[in-house]
Design goal:
8-stranded mixed sheet, 8 strands, elongated, alpha+beta
């Protein structure tokens, strides 16, 4: 067959469909799952941590740059996966057990290595997968024996191939619990179901991260709303000299809201995305109700959905408040611009009056200049006539001066007018 040129990312993009594959888990099995935030954890820290475990058990470590890894360590199997905001690690141990929560898979993992976990744990879960016939038939007995008598959340999953029980509580050991009853789950199917359950718990917690932020922003938005209302009321009765101060207050308020949006927008958007993942994972469980228990979807609709509605409400309030501030700022800027235009108009009128006065003054000065130059020039003519008369030239000085007056005055006036035209033309060109 001929070889065709491949797109440089063909293999990478194709392998994305097979990234983070589900583990095959056979019952009975115990699992321990940890999800920790990697906000301040570099990839190098994560990678070095998992490589250290591999070195202890002489297991081939993941290649540098890999975001997921799974291997058998003998006493347990480990699966590690780094995501954008958290890293999840699952430890699995197959074999019979008396109590999956008193004898979790994590007991077989080196404690000193676990203490070096690089991030802060957001989700910690112990899970047990057991065949149905070995578990109590009565839900109350399951609650009492495995969940300290707490109210259970659960359902049949996989179209009736199994059932899952949990209370979504953090127990005294710091872990929450899942108990899976295996009716006829296949190993791959069981692995998929357990992974979905871990993801439901993890993404539920990641979505909840936005709730404290929303609650902290609520009083700030109320204060900003009252401040905007007060400024808007002042605008209706504000004098011209008060408008710049009000505009400054609006600008500061707008900056405060924009800072709030910048700080919270990512968290609220992420919460919405995580909530969508939780809903998809619940759908993938294909759950059906069990008598006397709340199914997962109903529990999330009662607990998680109101929290997400609160976050959505706060996000919407922020944007609406920012829009109201923009409208108020535009209105006030319009008023300030109109005031400035009026002031500019008055200034232009004053400049026009000054120009007219300067023109009149200039014409007056020109007239005086003509008279002064004519006076001095005629005087020179008189001195010259008298000198010529003294030399014997038959000349009447008074007559010469009288005849020189209109000639000199006309010449000076014409010269000044010509000079004004030349200056005006040069200014017009510039």
């Amino acid at each position: 067959m001929p070889r065709f040129p491949n797109h440089p990312q063909r293999v990478t993009l194709n392998d994305e469909a097979h990234a983070r594959p589900f583990e095959a888990i056979r019952s009975p099995a115990r699992l321990s799952y940890l999800a920790y935030l990697n906000q301040n954890v570099s990839y190098g820290d994560d990678y070095q941590w998992i490589c250290e475990l591999c070195q202890r058990y002489d297991v081939l470590p993941p290649v540098s740059g890999a975001n997921h890894f799974a291997a058998d360590f003998g006493a347990f199997r480990c699966k590690w996966a780094r995501h954008s905001e958290f890293t999840g690690i699952t430890f699995t141990r197959h074999g019979e057990f008396r109590d999956p929560f008193n004898e979790p898979a994590l007991l077989h993992v080196p404690e000193d290595w676990l203490k070096k976990l690089p991030g802060e744990v957001l989700t910690a879960v112990h899970a047990g997968l057991e065949v149905q016939r070995l578990l109590p038939d009565n839900i109350d007995e399951i609650a009492t024996e495995y969940f300290r008598g707490n109210d259970l959340i659960g359902a049949r999953i996989g179209g009736g191939a199994g059932a899952v029980f949990t209370d979504f509580r953090v127990h005294a050991d710091g872990f929450s619990r899942f108990l899976i009853s295996d009716t006829h789950l296949g190993a791959r199917q069981a692995g998929r179901m357990l992974q979905r359950l871990f993801e439901i718990d993890t993404y539920r917690m990641l979505a909840f991260l936005a709730l404290p932020l929303a609650k902290s922003l609520s009083p700030q938005l109320s204060d900003a709303d009252r401040e905007l209302t007060a400024i808007t009321l002042q605008m209706s009765n504000a004098a011209q000299e008060d408008e710049p101060l009000l505009l400054d207050q609006l600008t500061k308020l707008a900056a405060k809201i924009e800072a709030s949006l910048s700080a919270s927008d990512y968290r609220f958007s992420a919460a919405h995305a995580y909530y969508s993942i939780v809903e998809r994972r619940i759908s993938e469980l294909r759950e059906s109700r069990m008598q006397g228990m709340q199914p997962f979807r109903e529990f999330m609709e009662r607990r998680l959905t109101p929290a997400m509605d609160t976050c959505e409400s706060i996000s919407r309030r922020q944007r609406m408040l920012a829009e109201r501030i923009d409208r108020a700022s535009d209105l006030l800027r319009t008023r300030v611009d109109i005031t400035r235009e009026q002031q500019n108009q008055q200034l232009l009128e004053q400049m026009n009056k000054r120009s007219q006065l300067q023109l009149r003054l200039q014409e007056t000065v020109e007239g005086l200049s003509v008279a002064a130059i004519t006076y001095y020039s005629v005087g020179l003519v008189g001195y010259a006539s008298k000198g010529l008369k003294s030399l014997g030239v038959p000349l009447n000085p008074d007559m010469a001066m009288g005849l020189a007056i209109p000639l000199i005055a006309g010449s000076v006036w014409y010269s000044i007018r010509a000079m004004r035209k030349v200056v005006a033309q040069e200014m017009g060109h510039h």
